[in-house]
Amino acid sequence: MIKVFAIIVTYNPNLVQLKLQLDEICPQVAGCVYVDNGSENRESLREFCSRLSKTTSWILNHENAGIAKAQNQGIDKAKKMGATHILLLDQDSIPCSDMVKALS
What we know:
By secondary structure, this protein is of the alpha/beta class. It is about 40% helix and about 25% strand.
């Protein structure tokens, strides 16, 4: 069975836009892993994360380790959660409601 997980790296994200992204992508995938690269709005992110579903996971880094390391952190976590396929997105992506289906 295919289990697609979305990996999204963030840095000082706009939380309103992030919520829009979450609402569009999460119903399309088995899970979402957000990896924050040391954002200045870290406390707002913590509060935001505390209200998310069990299929959405966060890694909050203390510093900006770069996108490649952050993506690899997300991929490792998704694999531990049972991911068979990975979709990489950035924090500004608002996908169409059928994007994952169209890609498969």
